[in-house]
Amino acid sequence: MDFDINAWQQFLQDNWIIAVIALVLIFIIMKLVKTVLKWVLVIAVVVGFFAYGGYSIKDLENIGTKVTSEMKDQAIKSMAGEAKEATYEDLADGAYVIKTTNLELTGVKNSGEITVKLRGISLGTWKMEGEVKDFVVKARAASK
């Protein structure tokens, strides 16, 4: 099984009540049952917890990937329509910031990468290619 902390966090956020109940059951079983049966019961509670969620960790990772992909698509669509009204600002350390109504892009000149935020939500660091590069060039030209 792959260990992805983000997928586990999302799983626990969605099922926190069941997780608390499962932990209480485990503690009760550990205190009251003194035989090998307690380990069978603990394993049953843990398996039941994950089965109740109905999702495997891979399913949660796939959902996260789809959401991230959709956000990236929205950001690229915003770039196409907002380049003319973008503000471009050179910073003293060689970095620059481009802001529009929905987007904020931060990068360092000639680094080949840019950090993208859509409506304040970080979408990570993207390579400076395709639509992203076109947007930066248009934004820089529009601000002059």
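Above is the first protein from milestone M3; the second protein from the same milestone is given next.
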Amino acid sequence: MTTHRTSVAVVGGGQAGLSTSWYLTRDGVDHVVLEAATAAHEWADSRWDTFTLVTPNWHCRLPGYAYDGPDPDGFMTRDEVVAWLAGYAPTFGPPLREHTRVTRLAPRAEGGYVLDATGPDGPETWEADAVVVATGGYHLPIVPPWAPALDPSVTQLHSAHYRNPEQLPDGAVLVVGSGQSGAQIAEDLHLAGRQVHLALGDAPRVARTYRGRDCMTWLADMGLYDTAVAQYPGGLAAREKTNHYVTGRDGGRDIDLRAFAREGMRLYGLLDGLSPDGARSTVTFRPTLASALDHADAVYTSICRDIDRWIEARGIDAPPPSTYEPVWEPPAEPTSLDLGAEGVTSVVWAIGYRPDYRWAEVGVFDGSGRPTHTRGVTSAPGLFFLGLPWLHTWGSGRFHGIARDAEHVAGAITSSLRTAVAG
């Protein structure tokens, strides 16, 4: 087994890992970026065919590299994002080792860390004074523990593996989850003419445009993407919030689930499980549909009113305000669905991911397996995290905030290395 030595090992070659490498390269810090597959591969591997960004293209900026295309207020497709990211590494030549999967991280008795990995030529070991874990926070797709008990004739897949309607067998589809992925996949299937049954969670929504501008451009001007998580109501609990659903498809528009229902999509409250009578093709729902729709609309309206106040306080010349009026109300609270009777042949689980850091043998994780840190800096000397949702701000899990986070972590790294040398 080959043993390598470096000052800093960055685990993960996505936008977070490459952004860290940009600053370390600039500062002349010896380091390596270890990537299990290929740089930024997740953008091609885990998005569906009609995926688009939900943030405007001008948000797309990495250290030393920003979107400079013809449509800054538009929304890049999956393939356009992949192409844009592919142009990043060549601008500064990071010490990137692809197809090198880290399988274990552990502290060394004499200080620093040891990383076991499997590279193109077999097992290898890396010794480093500092480590940046930049593998993101979305590792294991979540499906309910009772999912295997569902009728085996029903195809099941997670949103991470959904690509297009043609991938699924003919018939109706149950989409579970109304966050960004669930709402957009439901729309994709709906536009393809599929009968869609959508089980809603508690995700909020946001207007695509309001008073003449994209809402996310207003929110950026208002500093929402720059506010530290500790300053938000509820503090660190903001890290558990679900992002607002909206779409950048076809130039960008609202996702209004009430409008979809008026067009024939069937909506339900929170999915509870299999029918207690033992029927393997019948699922049950909590009576939360009306409250879920009302909550999403309330957040939508609240954001619009915040923008109104911002415009008024600064005397900005903008089109007049407007108010959303619900276009559909649920006539009842459906509490069950017989998949067989309704012709449902597929279920798409869009209920998120859980972290998986079992390979990291360092005591910095909480009871749910998430790293504990302050702006990416952990209590373990020389160990850092980057690329997590709400690592520091709402922008941390987006292109909008990654450069700031990477600069902070890179600065903390160089400080820790100087301290180690001085000691």
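Note on the second protein: The longest helix spans residues 289-314.
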